[in-house]
Prior knowledge:
This protein is of the alpha/beta class and about 475 residues long. The chain has 16 helices and 21 strands. Strands 8-9-14-15-16-17-18-21 form an 8-stranded parallel β-barrel, surrounded by 7 helices.
Amino acid sequence: xxxxxxxxxxxxxxxxxxxxxxxxxxxxxxxxxxxxxxxxxxxxxxxxxxxxxxxxxxxxxxxxxxxxxxxxxxxxxxxxxxxxxxxxxxxxxxxxxxxxxxxxxxxxxxxxxxxxxxxxxxxxxxxxxxxxxxxxxxxxxxxxxxxxxxxxxxxxxxxxxxxxxxxxxxxxxxxxxxxxxxxxxxxxxxxxxxxxxxxxxxxxxxxxxxxxxxxxxxxxxxxxxxxxxxxxxxxxxxxxxxxxxxxxxxxxxxxxxxxxxxxxxxxxxxxxxxxxxxxxxxxxxxxxxxxxxxxxxxxxxxxxxxxxxxxxxxxxxxxxxxxxxxxxxxxxxxxxxxxxxxxxxxxxxxxxxxxxxxxxxxxxxxxxxxxxxxxxxxxxxxxxxxxxxxxxxxxxxxxxxxxxxxxxxxxxxxxxxxxxxxxxxxxxxxxxxxxxxxxxxxxxxxxxxxxxxxxxxxxxxxxxxxxx
Length: 468
Ligand code: ACM
Ligand code: ZN
């Protein structure tokens, strides 16, 4: 899991050796091979095992072939040697496939040729409703890498907490990162060193990290520290309950944009990837309707209503990001008005937003509440945790991200699929993993494998082995 594009099983086994040597004997294009990563994965699977990393006479060899596409790999398991061929990104995917194929008595002889269907195969994690330390975040990234997923969407700011230290605004870490729980402060904040640590860990697994800084809504935690960025001046507390809150960033005050631009400048510096998520979802307009500054902004910019003000806000931030060379990503509400052409739309309120955005020529990530929300319940059992609707494993597995009504050009704009873990009802990491798995396994196959290879019965039988 996920099932490869082409798989041929031969006769016999490559038997597990007490000491397995792993190496890279051909040119790597200057990149280091994932020998260490593979060895740590194998030793976790077989705790009594040992791996030796070297370049000569390896049992498992990484071979460089720059002719293969990004993330594509060939895996050849014969009786006496294993070869993983690709460029560096393909090596990591091939190594993950090799780990997944290991049976108790070794590897079956086989040949695989494989490449991903979608280029964005994502998982999102909300660390705002409940804060999780970086060793937990890394664990999710590792599980993703083993399933050949490649994009980690880190939801870092929301009403209930701001989770990333910003040098220009120390109060975000001191005030916005903490909510009151039964009289005790609860929360936390990542330092920049924490983030660098996660980025290095993700990079070793060829996973890009997309930070999300929410605007203009879901901003109560930031407003608790900086009430002057709201329409009515507050005061506010970091939100203590879930929900959608009326107090959002004021779109009329220049101070809002000075604040957000300084925050984004530090985020752009810290995160090397090409994408930055600005949220954009669920922004009530009641304060903007009553605010002289917001109303003044609408007159000055010739905006006819508050929806146009939201679109003006997002477009302004999109232009700022474009100057830094980053692509803006936003939830599908960002469609409510003009958008920079390089903006990527994440379709969550069903698939209609994704369909419209693809027809407009935007790149689209499909992540609808109907299939991709892993905070929804997995079954109807009374003790089943979770929110709202029900999304059993089979529903996730059956998801087809490309809507049939799109013509081929628009269909080509659907460039990814993503599962979301909103943690309002997940106070512990154990619950996060319970909700994420095995739905993540099913989504990985939706994201990686050709639609023609998908088969629910076959997936279920492979899952039996996979769970161990
Ligand atoms: C969302 O679930 N509010 C994007
Ligand atoms: Zn205002």
